[in-house]
Amino acid sequence: MSNGMEGAVNGWLQHRMILDDLLALVDDDYVDYRPWDGAMSLGELAIHIVTSTHMFVNGIKKGEFEAPPEENNYKTINDIRTIVQRYTEETKEEIATIFTYQMKGYIQFNKLRAPGTYWFSNAIDHEVHHKGQLFTYVRMTGVKDVPNFTRQPDEI
């Protein structure tokens, strides 16, 4: 992995590691919490974040995107945390094996053709967007003290 890619991965991890911190603040009563009708539940949102980033990384490697994996076999917040941790490890491993030519290669997705670098950046932006929503969900469950938006580099 190039130094530039390593920096991008570390930046992504600074965001990703907060998911586990947020989920540690919630108990099982809120796994299916939805702040409005039609919203993803807290559990669905956390899983959507990790499976979508995984989808983007695998799509960059393959040169085409497939639907994110479905993960709906959970009941507790610890089940969700386990899924988040598993996808974090798998995604880190996949990112480590992306080649420069794959990052520069163009891939079509949602009627947009763009290089892998664009899609990797888009994956991080997508994750940050939904992580902001998850912060709101957690606060709406009554949690007053939430973690910082990112972990510091020496905490990764």
TrEMBL record:
GO MF terms held by the record: metal ion binding
Binding-site list for a divalent metal cation: 48, 126, 130
Record keywords, A-Z: Metal-binding
Coiled-coil portions: none
Gene3D superfamilies attached to this UniProt entry: dinb family like domain (1.20.120.450)
Record's keyword annotation contains Nucleotide-binding: no
InterPro entries: DinB, DinB/YfiT-like
Signal peptide (residue range): none
Superkingdom to which the source organism belongs: Bacteria
Metal-binding keyword on record: yes
Similarity comment: family membership: Belongs to the DinB family.
The protein, known as: Damage-inducible protein DinB
